[in-house]
Amino acid sequence: MKKKYNTKIVNYTFRNKVKHKKGEHYTFAFEDMTGRKYYKYSNEDPFYAAFLKGKTLRDTCYHCKYKGAGHTGDILLCDFWGIEKAHPDFNAKYGASAVLIYSDKGKHLFEDIPDTAIRKKKSQYETVVACNSSIIKSTDANCKMKYSLNESDLVERMIPQKTIKSIVKNHIPEWLKYRIIKKL
C-alpha cells in the first residue's frame, strides 16, 4: 500500500464499517501520515483478499476439531450474518454478533450480562448457522495457498484476479445491493 499510494500508512482497519453501514465486511480503510483516509474493497488488498478466501489460515483451521459437535466451550462468539433477514426489527447497522450457548455455565454467564450492556435478541442455532457455516465446518483445505514469507513474489501471488463480476460488485451502491438481497 505504501508503494502503491506513495505515502506512509499509519493506520489500517479490516472490516471497516464507515462507508458500508449495513455490516459489509469486504472493505478496509487506511490512513496516511497526512491524515488522509482511504476506503477500499478487499480485492484491492492482496492479504485481505487471500484471508477472505481462506488461503492464508493456519493449518489447524482446515481441519478444526472444535467445529459442530466437537465444540467443547461453554459459549461461542461469532458473526451473525443474515440477521437482517432473520430479525428485520433488530438494528444491525454495524453488523451483529451471535452468542451460541453450549452449557448451563454458558447460559448463566450470558444471563449475568446486564441488558444495558448489550442488545439481545433471541434466535435459533439453525438461523445463525444458515448464514455462517464456518460454525460447523472447517475451511476447505483446497483453498490453502502454499507460501513462505521469504518469497519475493508472495504479494503478487496473493493479488486476486479482476473479473467483470468483482469490478461491477464494487460499484453497485450499497442501498441497491441490500434491496436486491432483501427481495431475494
Concise account of the structure shown:
The chain is an alpha+beta fold and 184 residues long. 29% of the residues lie in helices and 15% in strands. It has 8 helices and 5 strands, in the order αβββαβαβααααα.
Q: Which features characterize this protein?
A:
globular, 5 strands, two-stranded antiparallel ribbon, 184 residues, 2 domains, 3-stranded antiparallel β-sheet
Describe the structure in your own words.
It is globular and about 55 Å long. It has two domains: 2-60 and 139-183, no CATH class; 65-135, no CATH class. The chain has eight helices and five strands. The chain has a three-stranded antiparallel sheet, with no helix packed on it. A two-stranded antiparallel ribbon has the order 4-5. 9% of the residues are buried. By secondary structure, it is of the alpha+beta class. Strand 2 (27-32) and strand 3 form a beta hairpin.
Query: Biggest sheet: strands side by side, in what order?
Result: 1-2-3
Which range does the strand content fall in?
5-15%
The secondary-structure class comes to: alpha+beta
Task: Determine the oligomeric state from the structure.
Answer: single chain
- Intertermini distance: 37 Å
Total count of helical runs of at least 4 residues: 8
Q: Can you give the helix content as a percent range? A: 25-40%
